[in-house]
Amino acid sequence: MRSLFDEKRCDCCGKDFVCPDIAAWRYKKTQRRGYLIFCSWSCLEKHRRKEKK
């Protein structure tokens, strides 16, 4: 049986988490080929800080 929610992997820490709707998910970053998905605000901020360097 298929799950109701998609399980995703955080692009920062590698943690698996449930993402009910990727379009409504707040912790993501748009790229040319789709999205980078993050499990939390802190992972999104860590990624943004790495990009600035």
The total beta strand count reads: 4
Q: Strand arrangement, largest sheet?
A: 1-2
Question: What coarse outline follows from CA principal-axis ratios?
Answer: globular
The residue-averaged pLDDT reads 89
Distance between the termini: 44 Å
| Percent strand | 25-35%
* Computed Rg: 12 Å
Structural class: alpha+beta
Q: Main β-sheet, in a few words? A: 2 strands, antiparallel
Given as residue ranges, the uncertain stretches (5+ residues, pLDDT < 50) are: none
Proportion in helices? 10-25%
N-to-C series of helices and strands:
EEEEH
How many DSSP helices?
Answer: 1
What does this structure look like?
With 53 residues, this protein is an alpha+beta fold. Helix content is 23%, strand content 30%. The longest helix is centred in the C-terminal third of the chain and has 12 residues, at 41-52. 13% of the residues are buried.
